[in-house]
Amino acid sequence: MPGPAVADATAGDIIVTARRREERLLDVPASVSAFSNADIQNRGVTTLNELQTSVPALRIVDIGPGSQRIQLRGISQYLGLPTVGNYIDEFSVNNEGASGSAEIRLLDMERVEVLRGPQPALYGEGSMGGTIRYVTASPDLTAWSGTALAELSTVRDGKAGYRVEGVLNVPIVADVAGLRLAAAQERLPGWTDGILGRNLNDQNITTLRGKLLVEPSPQLSISLLGLYHKTGQDVKSYSLEDRTTEQTVPSVARQDYYLGNLVVSYDAGPVTLLSSTGYLDQDGRSVDDSVKFYNVLFGAPLLASAITDTTGTFRRWAQEFRLSSNGSGPLQYLVGASYSEARNRGLIDAYGESLVPGLPAEALGVVFEQTSRVTSKVLALFGNVSYEFADRLTVDAGGRYFRDRRSVASGLTLIGLPVPPSQLDDSAVFDSFNPRVNLSLKTGTSGVLYANAAKGFRSGGFNLSVDPATPPTFGPEKLWSYEVGTRQSLIGSTLIVEAAVYYNDYKDIQATIVQASTGAVVAGTRNAGKARGFGADLTLLARPSRDLSITGTLGWNKVEYKTLSPDRFPGDPLDLVPEWTWSASVDYTPRLNDSVGLILHADIGFTDAAQITLRNLVALGFDAAEFSQSRAVLNLRAGVDLGTYDIYAFANNALDENRIANPSFGAFFEEIRTRPRTLGLGVRARF
Question: How confident is the model at residue 1 (pLDDT cuts 50, 70, 90)?
Fold first, then answer.
């Protein structure tokens, strides 16, 4: 089973399982960022979104509950399946869309690992740009323990919020069975004002988790995880520069899910057999007003509102078996198989209000009903083998055969127009073999040099369109990524340097097609275009003394379109991928005496401007591109450690940066901006 993430003298001591086995982060021949539970507590963060600038080449856009869009190393799309894998323990929580993955709070996490670049052999599903692993804390089988946290906060131009958390560890049978319970309730304060009221965009979040661990013998380990999460907003966080919104109807956003993951591991001596069984039951709702989009499309203000009310359910079951070698010999291997079934049902009710007497909204094509039912049955066979020559050079090769049988049953009815309903009932099989090869060279005990090549893959899908010229299906995407890098421990293990240069060759990119025929605007997808380019990651982790740690990261990405496609010109970047990101953080925790210590933390993260390009909307009266803004967000935290409890104060976005994180375009009513300066006080108790 995965071991704890610990950090003693250096960050290189963190133990990770990025390659499905325990090893020091310093020894991993791949681009991996890892955050231990101590890192998460020191920063006071509750989501990976708040850590994104500390991970080179990671970009997260948070539209609202259930609408996160995640990209790594420039592999970014607004439509289609995810391009980044998301795992809780051993279970993938990816949804059937680029957004909508189960939201994950950093409550009682053992660690978070971010693997950059394609991960075909060991993860595969949705892992074109990389994989994010959330490893929850396991029960301690020897002693009772727990923590409790309470925070109060206030946001500029808004009101107060709170956060309460509790964790309880119960050894049911000493050294044999234990239970760990964690719960959190949060209210993120709103700050946007408008015709609907003041401080509209409050968000309420509930998280409950239990984890049972049974180890009846040294060889057998059984872990059962149960998780419930619910989050919701009555009005999304769209806002103008003055932190007001022009929304005239509530833009509801909600998500709730139940998740279970049973993991059984048996050490048979030469090999370990692991079984992972997971189930996800997720529901969501999102309401938006696309009136600005339609009024630009019509060339005149014909509508007062154009509402889409989207509801969806997602169910996923997965079973995986892995057999991995034990011991420290030169030959190591892993083989496995997995099977999953996913069902996604969606309903869009669209309606509106006309501003023109005698011209109802139905006559303008904005009133419709769209239903969809998508199923996916995925079989994967995978393996990886490595051999170490002379205790220094290791050759590592693996791959995954992936077969996705997908089917769709959808219907689109335009209400009030003399257009027959459009129906789609289709199925297709998408399969691929995705290899990965890695060469690594140990530099004594101080680090590693490596080079690897890996292939990423994303399944195709189906189009539902009122235009018969639109193809009913579109094909998969392919990505080859090539990387050289190093991770080194320097200056007596007080400095860790991680650096990598990569080249992405991205083909058959799924491009957006927009039709405005028969009175409706319908988006479709087809394969068109290629993108290529270089990128680089750099991470520095220094601990000059036990009380002081300093980190810095730098990310650069120049992946661009190289061919003309329906929505891109050569030279266009991928959606909302910043060319530069960087971050720096400092933690200083001196002891004043045996009873009192200081807790001092500061971090700053910079994200470059980026654009989303939709050139096929120009003919409809829209701009060819919309832009986010560059921004540098400073967070400060200070407190005292009194042994059994901490008291602290914090200032997030201390300089009150007010910048566009996600631009307004298409159906997005207004831009999403950085959360205003938030001040707070908190206390954490331990027993």
Answer: very low
pLDDT at site 217: 96
With contact defined as beta carbons under 8 Å apart, do 533 and 573 qualify? no
Q: Are 406 and 427 in contact (CB under 8 A)?
A: yes
For 165, list phi and psi in degrees, rounded to 5. Answer: -140, 150
Average pLDDT value over all residues in the chain: 90
Instruction: Check: pTM over 0.90? Answer yes or no.
Output: yes
**Which amino acid, one-letter code, is at 393?**
L
Place of tokens 């660690």: 111
**CA–CA separation, 296 and 293 (whole Å):** 5
Distance from C-alpha of 463 to C-alpha of 412, rounded to nearest angstrom:
11
Residue 585 in contact with residue 603, Cβ under 8 Å?
yes
Ranking 136-145, 506-515, 577-586, 622-631 by mean pLDDT, the lowest is 506-515
| Distance, CA of 602 to CA of 589 (rounded, Å) | 12
Tokens 């690897």, residue located: 452
Q: Which two tokens stand for residue 109?
A: 């996490």
For tokens 């789609």, what's the residue?
424
- CA–CA gap between residue 683 and residue 72 (Å, rounded): 35
Condensed to tens digits (0 to 9), the pLDDT of residues 612-668 reads 888 877 777 788 889 999 999 999 999 999 999 999 999 999 999 999 999 987 767
DSSP-derived secondary structure for 397-452: EEEEEEEEEEEEEEEEEETTSS-PPEEEEEEEEEEEEEEEEEEEEE-TTSEEEEEE
In the block, tokens 């039951």 appear at 281
**C-alpha–C-alpha distance, residues 116 and 84, integer Å:** 9
- What backbone phi and psi angles, to 5 degrees, belong to 27? -95, -5
